[in-house]
Amino acid sequence: MSNRALGAPPPPGPQPVVNSVVASDASSETRALLKARDPHLWDELFRLAVLACAVCVLALVGIIIYELATRSHLSWKAFGLKFFFGSEWDPVNEQFGAWPFVYGTVVSSLLALLMAVPLGLGVAMFITEMCPRGLKEALAFATELLAAIPSVIYGLWAIFVLVPLLRVYLQPWLARCFGWTGLFAGPPYGIGMLAAGMILAIMVVPIISSITREVMTAVPRQQREAVLALGATRWEMIRIGVLRNARAGIFGAVILGLGRALGETMAVTMVIGNRPEISRSLFAPGYTMASVIANEFSEAATDTYLSALVEIGLALFLVTIIVNILAQVLVWSVTRGMPARGHA
Amino acid sequence: MGVGIKVEHLDAWFGKVQALHDISMDIPANHATAIIGPSGCGKSTFVRCLNRMHETIPDARAAGKVRIGDLDIYNGTAAVQVRRRIGMVFQKPNPFPTMSIYDNVAAGLKLNGFHDRKRLAEIVEHSLKLSALWDEVKDSLKKKSGASLSGGQQQRLCIARALAVEPEVLLMDEPCSALDPISTGKIEELIFQLKENFTIVIVTHNMQQASRVAEFTGFFLLGKLIEFDRTEKIFTTPSDKRTEDYITGRFG
Amino acid sequence: MPNSSDSGPIRISLRRRGMNHAVTLAAASAVLLVLLPLGAIFAYLVYRGVGALNWAFLTQIPKPVGEPGGGMANAIAGSVLILLIASAMGVPIGIGAGIYLAEYGRNRMGDVIRFTADVLNGVPSIVVGIVAYGVVVLAQGHFSALAGGFALGMMMIPTITRATEEMLLLVPQAIREAAYGLGIARWRTTLSITLRTATSGVITGVMLAFARVAGETAPLLFTAFGNQYWNWKISQPTAALSLQVFTYAISPFDEWHRQAWAGALILIVLIVISVSALRVAAGRGMLKGIG
Question: Domain with B179 in it: what CATH number?
Answer without folding.
Answer: 3.40.50.300
